[in-house]
Each structure stands twice: as C-alpha cells, then as structure tokens.
Design goal:
The structure holds 2 protein chains of 2 kinds. In chain A, strands 3, 6, 7, 8, 9, 13, 17 and 20 form an 8-stranded antiparallel β-sheet that branches. In chain A, a hairpin with a 6-residue loop joins β11 and β12 (200-206). In chain A, α2 runs parallel beside α5 (353-389), α3 packs antiparallel against α5 (353-389) and α5 (353-389) packs antiparallel against α9 (496-520). Chain A has helices at residues 4-16, 19-40, 319-340, 342-349, 353-389, 399-427, 430-449, 454-463, 496-520; strands spanning 46-48, 55-57, 74-85, 89-102, 120-121, 128-134, 143-149, 154-158, 162-165, 177-184, 187-193, 200-206, 214-221, 225-231, 234-240, 242-255, 263-267, 280-284, 287-292, 295-298, 309-310, 393-394. Chain A folds into 2 domains: 18-42 and 310-520, no CATH class; 74-298, Jelly Rolls (Sandwich). The longest helix of chain A has 37 residues, at 353-389. Chain A contains 9 helices and 22 strands. By secondary structure, chain A is of the alpha+beta class. Helix content of chain A is 36%, strand content 27%. The radius of gyration of chain A is 28 Å and the shape is elongated. By secondary structure, chain B is α/β, with parallel strands linked by helices. Chain B folds into 2 domains: 5-212, P-loop containing nucleotide triphosphate hydrolases (Rossmann fold); 223-281, 2-Layer Sandwich (Alpha-Beta Plaits), CATH 3.30.70. Helix content of chain B is 32%, strand content 26%. Chain B contains 10 helices and 13 strands. Chain B has a 6-stranded mixed β-sheet with strand order 5-6-7-3-8-9, sandwiched between helices. A 4-stranded antiparallel β-sheet of chain B has the order 11-12-10-13, covered by helices on one side. In chain B, strands 2-1-4 form a 3-stranded antiparallel β-sheet. In chain B, a hairpin with a 2-residue loop joins β1 (5-14) and β2. The chains are: A alpha+beta, B alpha/beta. The A-B interface holds A 1-3, 6-7, 9-11, 13-14, 17-20, 336-337, 340-342, 344-352, 522-523 and B 48, 51-55, 68-69, 71-75, 80, 82-83, 85-92, 95-96, 98-100, 102-105, 143.
Chain lengths: 523, 310
C-alpha cells in the first residue's frame, strides 16, 4: 500500500518544483501583509483638548480606556450614590420610576448652552438604574448590579460582560420593581421582586478579589442613543448622549454597613464618556431621586464606543486579496495536471485517486496555512502600531483570542485552499475552477462587507464558505450593548466556531464529492 | 508475479463510439510485443484500461494476474509511457522524475540512474517545457524505468524520434526483452517495429485481427517459399518431397520450395547428405506482411476524418 507520507512527499515535490506556484504563494503572503498595513495606515484622528486649544492628532488623542476584570475595554461611567460596605450584607431598594431624555446627535451644543438643550423625552433601551456593589470607584473595577432598564426589564449584570434577565417590564409607580443584592465573601446574589415579599434569585456573581471594604449603593446611567438608517450597501448611524432619572424608595441595608452618610458622585466620565457628564441625587428619608448618564458595559467597536476604536483583526483586511491568489494557485495545482494529461501519469503512479487528492489537499493546505500565518502575523505586527499611532484605541483581547484570530485566519486560508483543490478536481478546467473558487469563497465576503444590505449580507455570511471569516471576530457581540453589529463593522452573523464549521463543512463535502467523481470518471 | 499482461474480452464505449470491442491478447515476458493498428484502433484505450485509468464496460485487464489498481507501487512492476507530452512545462525533468520516484517509495538516486539510462544526462535540470518531442520520449522512458519494472508498456515511443533516436529505441527495447522483461510497444507504423518486435498484436476497430509471432507473420506473407541453390537437383527434390514439401525447379540449379521453412529444408538436406550452396527464405518485409493481413479488412483502416482537412 502506498503510504500517505510517500504521496504527500511526492505532491510536495510537484508543488515546489513549479516556480510560478511558489511565487504566487509568496505574493499572497505579501499582499495580505501590505494591504493590511496600507488599510491600517489610511486614517487619521484629530482632536482638541479644549474648544480653543491646539489641534492634536494621532496618539495624543487616544483616550485612556478602562479595562475590566476580564481584560476587556469597558465603559464605566455612571452616577453613584454610595456608602462603604465593610463585610457581608445586603441592600434592598424599590424602583418606582425610570424616565429619561436623549439626543439624536447631529445638533451641536453651543458654548454655554446646557447639553440637555434640544433633547427629546424618552428612554434608551439600555438606560440602567439600580443597586451596585463594587470593589471601588476606579473605572474598570469589579462589580455586580441589579438594575431596571429602559427596554429590557430587570437584569443582573456583573463585571461588564455578564448579563442575566430578571422580571420583564418597565419600572413604574404602578408596577414597581424591588431589587436586592446580598454579599457573602466575594459571592454576590441578585434578587428581584414585584412586592418586596416574594423574591426570586436572578443570578449569582463571584467577584474574585473583592476587598472586604467594598462600595455599595444606587446608580443610574444611560448610554448613547443611536439611530441607524439603513441605506443601500450598509447603514449610517447617528448617536447622541442620553440621561436617565430613577426614583428609589424603601432603601434598606442589612449586615456589616458602617452607616456612613450617602455620598453621590459621577464615576468615570471625562471627555470620551458616552454620557452628558450631568448627574446628581436628592434624598428624602429613605427615598432617593438619582440622575446619571454614561454606561457600564464592555466597549464594542463602532459608533457606540464614543471614541475611535480598532481591533486586532483590523489589519487582516487584506486577507481576502491574498486569498484570491491562494485559491488560484490551489485550483491550478489540480487543473494544470488535467490540462497537460499529467493526471494520467499521476493516477498510473498512484491508482488510489482519493489518496492522491488527499495528499494534494494536505500539501496545498499546509502551504496556505503557513502563508496565511506569515501574512496575518506580519499584518498585525506592522499594522497595529500604525493604527495606534493614528490615535485609535485597540480593544484588548486575551492571548487565547489573539491566537484564535491569527491561527484561525491561517486555517481559514488553508481551508479555502483545500476547497479550491476540491473544486479543481470536480471541474477539471482551470478557468472554471478558479472562477468557482473565487465566487464561492472570496466574492460573498467581499459583497457582504461592502455593498450588500445588512440582512442579505448576514445570510450570505451564514450560508456560504465565507462564513469562515467569523473566526477573525475578536470582540463578541453583547446583547446588552446597542451597536451596529454589521459585517462591515467586523461582526459576523454566525458565532465564531459555527462560521468556521460552515467553511469546514464546505471543504469536506467538496472533497468527498471530488473523490466520488475521481473514482467514477475515466482519467 | 509473472511479467504478463492479459487483456480479456475488454469492451469500452465512449458515448456512441465503440472503442474496444472484445479486445483480447496476452503479453509475455522476454518478448517485445508490437501493438499495431491504425490510429483510432483502440491501442491507447486498451493501454488506459490496463493502467486502470479507464474503466472497461466489460471484460478485464490483468497484469501479473492482478488488477493494476491493486498493486502497491505499480510502477515497480509495470512502467508505462502513454503520452510524452504529459508534463508540467515549467517543472524540470529531474523534478518530474523525483515526484514519481517518491510516489513509488523509491530513493532519489533512481532518478539519476534513469536519466543516464535514457540518455538525458546533462539536461535533467532543464525545464521539460523546453524539451523536443524526442527528448520528451526519452524522459517518458526514464519515468517508465524508474521502478525497474518487469513490464514496460509504451504508447508510440518512436514518435518524434530522429533516426539516431529510433536506432537507440530499438536497441533499448531489444535489451529490455533480453533481460526477460515483457515489453508492449504500440505503433501505427509497422515499419517502426521491423527488427524490434518478436510478437505482434494487430488490431483494428477495437479488436484483434492477428496475434502472431513476427516470424510466422513474415513466413505467411512470404507464402512460406524457400529458394534453394544446388547442383544436385534430383536428389534434393526427392529428399524434400519425401519430407512433404513441394519443390519446383525454377532455374538450372534453383529450386523453389513451399511447405517447409528454410530451417527445415537445411535439416532435411543435411540429414540426407545432399549438397547445396544456398538456402534463402523468401522474405517479405513486416510492412508488406501487415499490408497483406489488413488488405482483406480495409474497413479496419483509419477512416479519413474531418480532422485531416483542418
């Protein structure tokens, strides 16, 4: 039996001995790298620290973005009415009202004018008001909160990225919402209730390293109001700040509270906060009225962040160009043999045709993987510093995610090459195979991130092999953050591994079809 | 495994065209078997069926008693050359042979061996695309010889060879047969096989017309006649007639004998002590023999196709 190693070695000699193919692959790596770097260097950020101050640009404009306990960039600005919690204990409140105002954006706030001028009455869906226990008031601190929202009912949220639904509906005098947080060590449990007697657990949060002396109290915040207008080939978004006001009563504290006076202050905020910076509170006995603006949430790329962001996958924008070259070479690796009749020599040497195809797929797949790896590592290493110098904030991700994006991109390129090999074996003609490979792999991606309407693009990126590009998405989609999660913005409709599995599926099915045809057809 | 190719009642159709219509013959070791017939007679298709490249509709082809596809490293048992042009033009000859060698689990040293054997020393590093047809034929031979196979199967190996190349190819094929290998060589020109083939399988329209040794074929075409020059005419005639031959005096001391081969004539005369000065078989050329055998079967010849007019 011809061993797989012999065949792979044989096909490797075939591949490396045609200079055009080797050059093509190197070119693919260079295109991936250079285009990525070019795209990365194609923007510039300008800013002014004060209305009449000097115009700055680049890194000088980069805001300091807080980092949450999970290592992600977060927005952490809200109005906080608090007192220390020295150990275990609980806080219970009733929320009887949540109201707000928002701006559509577009209108310029004149100097000396209130930021509230021109705002519309109403809540944004993720306006938040509730109770919060936090490690401290430094932005990015670990926390757990029970809260009512403008449009998503009661939630328990903690450490920025976690979100669990509680009771539905908007809090009002007619339908008040009772919220409770109990702390035991570093475990915080959230409860909700409609009447203050029947309580339901919404969730439990373990806040690693929560100091004995925590801060706890009531908070209100309200994120940017974003209005999106779909138009042909994408959507445009306008956003403006919003603020919310909540009425709390029946505030009761149990446990290890030193019983200091309630103090109120804006946490976070600053120039790049999505809030108005306006906040305050009014106490009447056990009742409080609190107003705040901002958000307590992970940062997602795009307009919702309130400042220019970038992601580690942004320099990979050139991958599709390298991919075109790679699928051409991969398809030709098979079709060139048909064109010259060399396929008969190959099959006379190795009559097990399926194994020949497998060896070809292994060789091209490995070469493409290495090329993809070199191209994307290079693009990221050269591209990210350029993006940083322009003043964009890189949204940090874990090392594991970074590795997944880079290795995943290489695997995406490898799988696309394998798919092209299979298409070459199925179609046998260079022009047909190359066209088919580009049409099914590269074109859907290109159309989806450029001209296709968002809905259509979403389906294209679920159903075609281009779904595999999802492996490049480094920042997850957060249901608790309103943003435009579009392909053009780097968001893929399919979950990362589902999208990747779709591409794998196409490659496997195409290979199997190719093997069946190779066996059935005369060479 | 015995170095044989057995083609047994193979039928193959391409659409409505019948390419092979019960093709049956055997190739034996130690002989050069010529596979002769006009273009389109089914020679290449038969070879593709033998190599498992085309699946027969019916019948089977076995090499050494097994299907070619079942062989582990098939080129170590059967080396073949179907189409000298089947090369990636930008790949060097050496690399072409190298991938083939690796696919058979052979060391790279075999590549140098066969390059020398095929007379391509010094040009192995050149791109195959720049090779003349003659050089490609030699490269194809080198590829076929990589596995040092017991069976060689070559489709039209004389195509494109210069006279020197033809002489080389003939000597090469003869030497392979002398080493005990089975050699199947196709050609549409019988003259190419003169002095090369021991055995002939003559085909037309997808089946075998004649399966014969070259000696028998030539003898048959020569009408089995032997010319004898002797001064003892009566004694010779008596001895030969006694041995069952018909002898007619065609000159003062010349007899034309039919019914006995030249060899038998010599044996008979020597046994009876009859003196003679010359025995010669009346030799037809292979080409004449081929024409004779296919004369009665004109429709086996290639039909003029529109392609010719192009």
């Amino acid at each position: 039996m011809i061993s797989g190693v012999e065949l792979v070695r044989s096909e490797w000699v075939k591949f490396r001995s045609v200079r055009g193919w080797v050059i093509g692959m190197i070119l693919a790596a260079l295109l991936t790298l250079l285009l990525g770097v070019f795209v990365a260097g194609n923007g510039s950020i300008g800013c002014q620290t004060s209305p009449n101050g000097p115009v700055l640009s680049g890194k000088a404009c980069t805001p300091a973005v807080p980092i949450g306990p999970g290592g992600e960039a977060v927005t952490d600005s809200f109005y906080f009415v608090r007192q220390p919690l020295a150990g275990n204990g609980s806080i219970t409140v009733r929320v009887t009202s949540l109201t707000g105002m928002y701006s559509n954006g577009g209108q310029q706030v004149q100097a000396g004018q209130s930021p509230l001028a021109g705002m519309t009455k109403g809540l944004v869906p993720w306006s938040k008001a509730g109770i919060l226990i936090t490690a401290g008031t430094r932005p990015g601190s670990a926390y757990a909160a029970m809260l009512v929202t403008g449009g998503h009912g009661v939630r328990m949220q903690y450490d920025y990225t976690h979100d669990t639904a509680g009771l539905p509906g908007l809090a009002s005098a007619a339908a008040p919402r009772w919220l409770r947080l109990t702390r035991s060590g570093d475990v915080i449990t959230g409860y909700d209730s409609t009447d203050g007697t029947h309580w339901a657990v919404v969730g439990t949060a373990k806040l690693a390293g929560l100091p004995a002396a925590a801060q706890a109290g009531m908070f209100v915040t309200s994120p940017l109001h974003t209005k999106t207008e779909p138009f042909f080939g994408g959507s445009s978004a306008q956003s403006g700040p919003s603020q919310a006001t909540a009425v709390f009563d029946s505030v009761s504290l149990r446990g290890d509270w030193p019983r200091a006076a309630w103090t109120g202050a804006n946490v976070g905020g600053g120039k790049y906060s999505p809030g108005t910076g306006i906040g305050g509170f009014h106490q009447a006995g056990r009742g409080f009225t609190v107003t705040g603006s901002g958000d307590v949430a992970p940062v997602v790329p795009g307009a919702a962040a309130g400042f220019p962001t970038t992601t580690i996958e942004q320099p990979l924008a050139g991958v599709f160009v390298g991919l075109i070259v790679i699928v051409v070479v991969a398809a030709m690796f098979v079709t060139a043999e048909y064109r010259r009749g060399l396929i008969r020599v190959t099959f006379a040497a190795s009559p097990r045709r399926g194994r020949v195809l497998a060896a070809k797929a292994v060789v091209v797949g490995l070469v493409a993987f290495v090329i993809g790896l070199v191209g994307s590592v290079g693009a990221i290493m050269l591209g990210l510093p350029r993006l940083g110098n322009e003043g964009l904030v890189l949204l940090p991700v874990s090392l594991l995610t970074e590795a997944r994006v880079i290795v995943g991109t290489a695997a995406l390129v490898a799988l696309a090459a394998v798919l092209a090999v299979a298409l070459g074996a199925i179609l046998r003609r260079s022009a047909a195979a190359v066209t088919a490979a580009i049409v099914v792999i590269v074109l859907p991606y290109l159309l989806a991130v450029t001209v296709l309407p968002v809905d259509v693009a979403a389906w294209v990126l679920r159903l075609t092999p281009a779904a595999g590009f999802a492996i490049q998405q480094s920042i997850p989609r957060y249901p608790q953050v309103n943003a435009i999660y579009s392909p053009a913005g780097g968001y893929y409709p399919a979950p990362v591994w589902v999208g990747f599995a779709v591409l794998c599926g196409y490659a496997v099915v195409a290979l199997l079809a190719a093997v069946v045809l190779l066996r059935r057809r005369d060479a | 495994m015995e170095a044989t190719i057995e083609v047994d009642r193979v039928r193959k159709r391409f659409g409505r065209a019948i390419a092979l219509d019960g093709m049956t013959f055997t190739v034996r070791p130690g002989l050069v078997t010529g596979f002769v017939g006009p273009n389109g007679a089914g020679k290449s298709t038969t070879m593709r069926v033998i190599l498992g490249l085309d699946a027969p509709d019916d019948g089977q082809a076995l090499v050494g008693g097994r299907r070619y596809e079942a062989l582990a490293h098939p080129m170590r048992f059967l080396g073949s050359l179907l189409d000298a042009g089947a090369l990636q033009p930008s790949r060097s000859a050496r690399n072409h042979l190298r991938w083939l060698a690796y696919s058979q689990g052979l060391p790279a040293s075999r590549v140098s061996d066969v390059i020398e054997q095929a007379g391509l020393t010094g040009v192995g590093k050149r791109k195959a695309g720049g090779y003349s047809l003659g050089m490609r034929q030699r490269l194809g031979i080198a590829a076929a010889m990589l596995g040092d196979p017991a069976i060689l199967m070559l489709d039209e190996p004389f195509n494109g060879l210069d006279p020197e190349g033809i002489v080389w190819m003939r000597g090469f094929l003869r030497s392979l047969a002398r080493q005990g290998r089975a050699v199947l060589v196709s050609s549409h020109l019988m003259s190419e096989l003169q002095d090369t083939a021991d055995h002939l399988v003559i085909v037309g329209r997808g089946k075998v017309i004649a399966d014969t040794s070259v000696a028998d074929l030539v003898a048959a075409a020569s009408g089995d006649r032997v010319t004898l020059r002797t001064t003892a005419l009566p004694a010779a005639m008596a001895a030969l007639e006694c041995a069952g031959a018909a002898a007619i005096a065609t000159g003062p001391d010349v007899l034309t004998i039919s019914g006995l081969s030249a060899q038998r004539v010599v044996t008979v005369l020597s046994t009876d002590g009859v003196q003679f000065s010359e025995v010669s078989a009346h030799h037809a050329t292979l080409e004449q023999a081929y024409m004779e055998i296919t004369r009665d079967a004109v429709d086996f010849r290639a039909e003029p196709t529109p392609e010719v007019a192009r």
